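Please check this record.
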Amino acid sequence: RNFVKKMDNKNSGDTDENKDDISNVMGFGSFGGGKKAKQFDFMAMFEQTRQTAMDRSQKVLEDRVKDTKIDDRPHSSGNTIKGPQPLKNKQTDSESEDDDDDDVIGPPIPGSMKTSAEQDEDEVIGPPIPTATAANDDDDEDEPEEEEEVPWNKIPSSHEIELRHGSKTVSALTLDPSGARLVTGGYDYDMKFWDFAGMDSSLRSFRNLRPCQSHPIRSLAYNASGEYILIVAGNSQAKVITRDGHDVMECPKGDQYMNDMAKTKGHIAMLNGGCWNPKNRHEFITCSNDGSVRIWDTTCDKKHKNIMKPRSKLGRKATPTACVYSTDGKLIATACQDGSIHVFENKKYIVGNPAMLTRGAHQEGSDVSGMAFSYDGTTLATRGGDDTVKLWDIRNFKKPINVAEGLTNYFPVTDVIFSPDDKMVITGVSVKKNEGKGKLVFMERNTLQVVREMTVSDSSVVRCLWHPKLNQIVCGCSDGVAKLYYDPDKSVRGAKLCVFKKKKREEGSDFISSTHIITPHALPMFRTDREKSTWKQDLKARMDPTKSKRPDLPVSGPGQGGRIAAKGGTLSQYIAQSIAKSVPDDRDKDPRAAILRHAEAAESDPYWITPAYKKDQPYATFQKEEEEEEENDGPLWKKPKLK
């Protein structure tokens, strides 16, 4: 506006037309400051776009006609192959003039979207193109129909390897999610790590730990990411370590003088089981003889995250013996010694009452040793101490679906698992010593009928594990052996990586210990012998009594080197001889008698004292001894005390 005012003052003599020109140049409709809106002709823009599309379509049509003329050439067989031809236009000129406004802009409409009348009008020259469905139909007719393989034929059991854990029962097994490492634990308090990629055919573990001192290990488990290992032992404090064995956390111990377990920060009695949440890599649960199931988090080791307290039929404390998460992590199932099964919902605040409850699921007083959810999350399998395996439907939890009996169980940690395809249930069978062979039993899921029994060893089969990625089965036995079964065709990695590796050559002791400078032309006084191996050095050191610390040989003769002869070979003999040959010491005699012994010589030949008193006291005067008092002078208590 200031600029316009200056221009107005400068050109005060200009006409109104000049003012209008100035305002138009500045973008104002008038000196009042109003703007003019920019105008667009939409119809002209649409017409221009339509004309451009028609030109492009015409050019594409001409290129197709040229390609058709090139392809119409005779071949060696004399036949002529015609390429695709442009579509014929049956409309007359008058119709085309009337339908100019209805021309299609852009590529032609696909055939699948055309009507039947339009498809009839399109004439295609050449043989019909075979469709993919027709080709597939021909292949199906030629190939024989493949029969579906039964589930028990998929069991990888053609080959096996034996991993020696110790001499006592292998009570815990776990494989990381990738299948690279196996961890075993037993009643000998030890954990052993097995790396399939690093092992050779000697099948030795690369690490051995004793994480819980003198407590047997009851359960081991990798979390969902494979970075942590949960250790549940016979004490009251579960432990979490890394995959390399370094400590991460240890659950705190509760106050054993508290009656309400919810008021304590941890368990106060022996642990029975534990497992990780499959959907949360930091969350896990443990169950204990104190009658509680607690939820923990690795990010907080001061107190449990939540607690569940199963109750018996009379409302008293029930002891949980096993616990497990569902596959989606929303449910927590636990079995108690009174035979009941409690299923709680995994919420932020868990109410004391379970979401599902079944009384008398197993025999009262027997320990339910194992529980497992199916991969689809609808079925729960339980392994009881009453020699049974039962399947439960989560949607109808009152009665079991099927029951399998006669499966002997002597251990409180015997497993039950589902196959990776969810079609079989697997568990181990216990036997007494020298009374049979331990077996791994495979049962059909729908009926729990035994479809296969696999003999494992002469001892009980306690733990079992079927890894879905490796397709390999691991069994823990009561004789301290873990056996791994695989199939070279059906299994991948795992035992196949180490079973064919040659053993590493053992390094012998015959090698040059240090560099030695050889000087063959040196003078004899400076020449040293060539040291070829430590074996020769050890031989020389053995001949040297000082380096080998050889004991002294027995002395023969009068004695040598400060050692006494054979007659006084020992210290006791030497002391006895020295005492026997010793002369009595004069100092042990009466001192008065020793002095009076020289009285005659002093009197006859005085030299020291007598000449000094010869003038003043020629005769020596001695004190006379007092006469002893008679014993009957008086009682003892009346006699004066000597000072």
Residues 42-71 form the longest helix (30 residues). The first strand starts at residue 159 and ends at 164. Residues 44 and 50 are 10 Å apart (CA to CA).
